[in-house]
Write a structure and sequence with these properties.
With 369 residues, the chain is an alpha+beta fold. It is built from 13 helices and nine strands. Strands 1-2-3-5-4 form a five-stranded mixed beta barrel.
Length: 369
């Protein structure tokens, strides 16, 4: 087990540390003098950490690559309010030295319970065609394994092992609540089918064995095209599946990003598609906020959030400080409602670096939603 985790940065500020990391990104950039320095993004299961190597770059530039595990000695301090490691020495690690669980973030929720929640929702379907279709996906052991382990995105939201399943269960619950408010407008089974399938292509778009990166197929096609192929294959296993249902589900898949500029070739054109888009967007953005607050627990205002393109006010911290300074009692909750417990999921910082190419927030969001 590692002795230092990125979540321990506060305890080791302004100290020289020796620790192991996964190299998420590696770039050689010129200094003003023309000499090269290395700009790195390092990771372990508790977070990401920026790192710079200013000296002796020529001696180290070829000793490791992106996605390698490395042992680093360097000075940990803050730059512009964020922790940064100045690298003095670095070496590549052998896989025999590596416990993979130390380096990939993972949901703290019980995967088995999350999967059972999905199955319970599907058991409650009233439409036999939609129920048979989703059960065909659930019964596939390869899909089950990947669905339980895949992240929901590379960096922007739910970027951890089990993140896809965590996101879909949360989305199921949001859909269930919203359906109750529009009982005459929304077909619940159709909406939940879209929620289950909208990101299922991520299991092939992303690789998550040692780091979260795009597969060649994922880069060339994207998860929505992959999902249409998967849908066609499973529908062939469901006798008598109505072709009209197929068209509706295809539209749910290709429209769930909501806008052309976010990667959807069609905008949502019926109620379930519109609701899926907005609830999916809501859940991803709320997770991005929650993860950022977790990374900067004592801050009122966070640093810039790349996925949301703004800094964030932690209203909980702000109100607690305001109440403490005024001697006010805690905010009154509605009858029967207790303050929500703070979650402790290990979640990665969100970024917009994709394959070492800096993307705009809009382009990154379109790819990752």
């Amino acid at each position: 087990m590692k002795e230092f985790y990125i979540s321990d940065c506060v305890r080791f500020e302004n100290q020289v540390i020796t620790a192991s990391f996964l190299v998420v990104s590696k770039q050689a950039k010129p200094k003003k003098s023309g000499e090269l320095y290395l700009a790195l993004t390092l990771a372990d299961c508790s977070g990401h950490l920026d790192a710079k190597m200013w000296d002796n770059v020529a001696d180290h530039i070829n000793c490791f690559e992106q996605d390698d595990f490395v042992k680093i000695r360097g000075l940990l301090n803050k730059f512009n309010g964020r922790f940064q490691l100045t690298v003095h020495k670095v070496r590549s690690m052998q896989e025999s030295e590596v416990d993979f669980a130390d380096y990939l973030p993972r949901t703290t929720k019980d995967i088995g319970e999350l999967w059972q929640t999905v199955k319970d929702f599907v058991d409650g379907f009233r439409d036999p065609h939609l129920q048979a279709l989703v059960r065909a996906f659930i019964a596939d052991p390869e899909i089950e394994f990947a669905y339980k382990n895949a992240p929901a995105a590379k960096t922007l939201h739910h970027a951890f092992i089990g993140g896809l399943l965590d996101h879909v269960v949360s989305l199921f619950k949001l859909c269930d609540l919203a359906c109750r408010n529009y009982p005459d407008t929304i077909n619940r089974d159709l909406l939940l089918t879209g929620a289950f399938l909208h990101d299922i292509g991520k299991i092939h778009e992303l690789t998550f064995a040692r780091s979260f990166t795009y597969t060649t197929r994922g880069q060339l096609l994207g998860h929505m095209i992959i999902e249409l192929e998967m849908l066609q294959q499973k529908i062939a296993q469901v006798p008598g599946f109505p072709p009209e249902y197929k068209t509706l589900i295809e539209h749910l898949i290709i429209s769930h990003h909501g806008k052309y500029e976010f990667g959807s070739p069609k905008m949502p054109m019926f109620p379930e598609a519109l609701m899926l888009h907005y609830l999916d967007d809501l859940d991803s953005k709320m997770e991005s906020m929650r993860a950022h607050f977790q990374r900067e627990p004592g801050a009122e205002w966070t640093t810039y959030n790349a996925s949301l393109a703004r800094p964030l006010l932690n209203s909980k911290n702000f109100l607690e400080k305001l109440q403490a300074s005024n001697g006010a009692a805690p905010a009154i909750q509605p009858d029967g409602v207790q303050p929500a417990a703070v979650q402790s999921d290990a979640v990665q910082p969100e970024g917009i670096l994709t394959d070492n190419v800096l993307e705009s927030p809009k382009a990154a969001a379109a790819k990752e939603k």
